[in-house]
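=== RUN LOG ===
request id: a7f3
mode: sequence -> structure
chains: 1
length: 288
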Amino acid sequence: MLKRNVENFIGCESSYEEAELVIFGAPFDSTTSYRPGARFGSSAIRHESFGIETYSPYQDEDLTDYSVFDSGDLELCFGSAESALADIEERADTILNDGKLPLLIGGEHLVTLGAFRAAVKKHPDIHIIHFDAHADLRNDYLGAELSHACVIRRCHDIIGDGKIHQFCIRSGDREEFRFAEKHTDMHKFNFDKLEETVASLGNTPIYFTIDLDCLDPAFFCGTGTQEAGGVSFMQLLEAIETVCKANVVAADLNELAPNLDASGASTALACKITREFILAILKNKGDK
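=== RESULT ===
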């Protein structure tokens, strides 16, 4: 049984036994290819969440009406990506095997691979819905196959063609886009075809991963690799609500680097998206 963290995300104060959704943080950014700082994202989101309310006027839902447990941040080895991924996988395994939904907060995007390895063991027919500025489909980055630039390619190694659905992608090398044409369901620049994709999946288990740099840097500049273009806060919120109507069984939110936005605006946005993400998942699970 997991113990509650000393400081929780606002409103997430249930016991582990009661909770349907369990938050855990992965403060890891050792493979970040440009500007580091995502290792501070999970703790910043938790700490700064007390600047927002538990109630969402967007969804007319309140975190205090649900049972959410915050198990805090893992202590990860910064010298070994595989060691860090193993620890993330172990925590996600525990949560999934106890019949609860893990919500991983990063951290750089590579942390997704650990949680996804756990999810695919529990749900072999799982699909991925991926929001990001970057394709993350490189086979390696400077010789390293475990990199935030390769995370979706590593997920593809596990589940193969036709099960990865990518949205908002606007950056990558040529080979990544050529790979996507043959192996993934990529939708560039925005959320076009998202509703149709979700409808086509029916009750298929979904791993939902959000890299916050899918947002336009005008809204979210506190991230390691900014990409001009992207979507607005409201577009992302509506897209999250759309995906969460489906059978989301595990999820993550990553790539806030709070040190790169001294105004705190990016962290405030990430806090609000985290609240909306939790509520969107749970209201569609019907577990109030």
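=== NOTES ===
Strands lie at 21-26, 55-56, 61-62, 68-73, 101-106, 127-131, 164-169, 185-188, 206-211, 248-254.
The two ends are 22 Å apart (CA to CA).
=== END ===
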